[in-house]
Amino acid sequence: MIHRGFVLLALLLIAVAARVAAQSPQTPSLHRALAAAKSDTSRVLLLADLSASYRYSRFDSVQAYAQQGLALARRLGYRKGEGRCISRLGILMSERGNLPQALRTDLQALQLNEESHDLEGMARTLNQIGLLYYALEDYRPALSYFFRAQRLYAQARIADPSQLVSVLTNIGASYEGRSQFDSAAVFLNRAYHLTDLARNHGWSCWGNPTPYVLRELGLLEASQGRPAEALLYYRRSVRAAGPENDRRSACRAYQYMSELYHQRQQSDSSVYYARKALQVGQSLPFVMGVVRTSNLLADAFRARGLNDSTLKYLQILHTAEDSLYNPQRIKQLDAIGFAEQQRLRQLEDEQLQLAERTRTYALLAGLAAALLVAGLLWRTNRLQHRTNARLRTLHNEVTQQKQEITTQRDKLARMLHELKVAQSQLVLREKMASLGELMAGVAYEIQHPVNSVKNFAGISVSLVDELRKELAKLPLELDDREYLAEMLDNLSQNQSKIVQFSQRADSVVRGMLEYSSSAPGPRQPTELNAFVEDYLRLTYHDARAKNRNFHAALFPHLSPEVGTLSVVRHDIGRALINLFTNAFYAVQQRLALDEDDYVPQVTVTTRALDGRVEIRVRDNGLGIPAAALPNVFDQFFSTKPPEEGPGLGLTLSHELITKGHGGTLTVETQEGEFTEFIISLPVQ
What we know:
The protein has 22 helices and seven strands. The chain has helices at residues 2-21, 27-36, 40-53, 59-76, 79-95, 99-115, 119-135, 139-156, 161-177, 181-201, 210-223, 227-244, 247-263, 267-283, 287-304, 307-325, 327-390, 395-473, 478-516, 528-546, 569-591, 649-661, and strands at residues 524-527, 553-558, 564-567, 601-609, 612-619, 664-670, 674-682. Helix 9 packs parallel to helix 11, helix 11 (210-223) packs parallel to helix 13 (247-263) and helix 12 (227-244) runs antiparallel to helix 13. The longest helix has 79 residues, at 395-473.
């Protein structure tokens, strides 16, 4: 029994030691602050910081504390705390190699940071997003996010310099990946000098960034052909990572040492440090480190002819690579990143529109001031007339002043008259444009029921003839037969009148459509690629305005060989808008099915062929059924529900392309996969 008690005590001490070793030096103080917190909002922020303190040592603790804080923040409706906790969950997903889910989570956190005006949270989240692209060695977007984070830290004037050290180191590492060593040295040295200031200030929950800075300085030395200096930095990084329990930095430093020894053909040392890196990386697990070190070990044992060990590390490598570089995940990452770029572009457009509205209001205020001045001058003129009647002794002086005032008044009156005329013209033009749109809408709505009435009336005439033949076969009395024949004649005449008046209504509707449509304009030389891309963006923003939750990936593949083409811009624009609208409608319908891993995509392609130019509009929506394909360009034919439109868009587009420009409009489709419309225009 005594021996068993000692064993249990030893196991308990080992568990406590492991728990303590997994903590960063800041973790105990965070636990004490959490226990002493008096408000729930403070508890949320402390839980988020506590989650971050385990990010390089215990992923289960990262998840546990972040989810606990997130649940409390949502219960309180505390948007700032919700953004901080979701950002911590993004760290966990990126370290485990699920980059698309990490990016989606980080973007969600970024929106919450922006809504709560949390500049510090925005900077941290932007830094995390940059690291996702850095992991894929896509340094251009990574640098963009890092610099945005740096500007926010400067704007917020955050007292803790350790966060800025991390951003500066990331910028230097990105320049290092692009082989811009001078720029990398500038930022890495700035980060290294800031570590002393951060150490004196006291490290935050994000820990000590010194191991990260040292290993990147070592990598810079190795890239410039100074291996001895590089090894010194790597060893210093490992020593600095120990007290912080920074297993991620230790894994990276061991990996860099292994790669350096591999380059120097010291295979034993390379294998030794690669195994240490793999062991530390798998304990987190740090997927990026596992990929690099397992690849090193597989190459080393392949060179030695040890096939069993090679196969073992190749299996580890393939498992990690599939988690990190899975093509489907990369596709999702691209689509999410593209949607975020679209969102940022939309925000910029909204800011420009706000500035434009502000200028308009300023002009209106100036106009109001001018009208006020005119009124004051008119009042002054009246007072001057009264003064002239009383002060006849000053007649000459008053007459001169009167002439000056009259001149100013006439000038202002002319300006006011011109302004009223211009305003009346604008109102008239707007009314005429609205009238044209109203006539087109009414015509579209009337045309279908008019055709239906005409068709049913024709059917009724045929039915009356058949009824007359059937009645002739029945044994009826002469009076009854004559009475029924008279009724059938009246009914037949009524149906003929209905057909006649339906034809008249149809001609009226056609006249309204012809009047409301724009007259064929002159052909103008047009940069076709820019024209097509402008209408694609315009239609996409219109679809987004109707459904702000809708996002689609746009892929313009525009051949520079297309150049300039002489077209009627208005007609080609109407045709393109119809095709793009149908494409966005198709992908929205498929998106509503909630298919796994479905990304809405609309592709527009231009290319120059012999004597003609081709424009292809393709979507990955539901496609067109084979039974409906022969009628796709017929009037009033549509696969949409009746409330979605009268089905005239493709018909109008077909006429504008074929009759207006002498081209062709065809369609290719596969049900459930895609639809592609092809416009072919002759080069004149």
